[in-house]
Amino acid sequence: MKKWLKTIIIIFIIIIAIGILGGVAFYRYREKIELILKRPDEILDISTPVVVYKAGLGLINESLILNGDVVPETEVNIYSTVPGKIKDILARDGDEVAKGSVLAFIDRSEAGLTFAPTPIESTIDGIVKKVLMENGDYVTPQLPLFQIININYVEVVVHISEKDISRIKQGIETEITVVSYPNKTFYGKVSKISPVVDPVSRTLEARILINNSRRMLKPGMFGEVRIILRRRNDALIIPLSAVIDRDGRNVVFIEEEGRAVQVEPLFDIREGNTISVLEGLVQGQNVIVIGQHNVSSGDMVTITEVLE
Question: Could you tell me if 300 and 258 are in contact, meaning their C-beta atoms sit under 8 angstroms apart?
């Protein structure tokens, strides 16, 4: 048999085989093919799944966050009015004392002269922070004998950078947290502002007064202070994660009728993981917070979860 005839026969056999296999495949998948041809929109889903947050009204603060040390509002040193030897110490570290209570006695007696013991009295109500002498010590009016503190009110000392000085006023509300009570917030107000800036640190000292009647705050504690510069009670708030950069602009995507719509709101206060909006969004709109990086304006989207 000639070579060209063999080639024709082989090609013919291959064509028959392909036809048989194609027919088998068609009958096997005919139902699926017909389903795709009849209902293409239901099978081919090109929408992007997203999670949305319903924009709502709430409280937001613009704050200046600083660190500070807790100190007693009142701390005094107690001195003797006369020289002599310490005879009896009646108060010890940590003791509660009242104004006028006797803390110790001084013996002024010398060779040939005897004097009645002279009492050393507290000048304030408070707690003995430190006893600075021992029985038998010779003291003079120039030496402090006791340190007394009152911690019914305490102060937190903070240092404000020069660029923020103009924003701090007496009476501004503050919130304070300390490591010892991580789930507790203490409230106070700016009570004192130094009239001078430290020339080395370029900061201004301010003191925040806190009611400490339960004496939870102890002098020496270290706290984080939020000075509330501005507060809005009815701000339109969205998660900060909703804001993304597109071509150098801060934009947000919202969902409207199953499609993503890009908007460019006017933002205001940022606090933690939230930000308030002045213009460009309204209460109740679905703001895309997951999936916004994957869409463009007009794209079809499918909401998988709604957060509030």
Answer: yes
Looking from the CA of 127 toward its CB, the CA atoms found within 13 Å total: 12
| 3-class secondary-structure state, position 23 | helix
Q: Residue 225: CB partners within 8 Å, gap ≥ 6?
A: 65, 66, 67, 68, 156, 158, 174, 175, 176, 208
pLDDT tens track for 167-209: 999 999 999 999 999 899 999 999 999 999 999 999 999 999 9
Query: What are the structure tokens assigned to 70, written together?
Result: 């807790």
Bridge-based pairing state of the strands 48-54 and 301-307? parallel
Helix segments in the chain, DSSP class H: 3-28, 30-38, 40-43
CA distances 28 to 4, 34, 42, 44, Å, are: 36, 12, 22, 21
- Amino acid found at 50: V
Q: Are 149 and 73 in contact (CB under 8 A)?
A: no
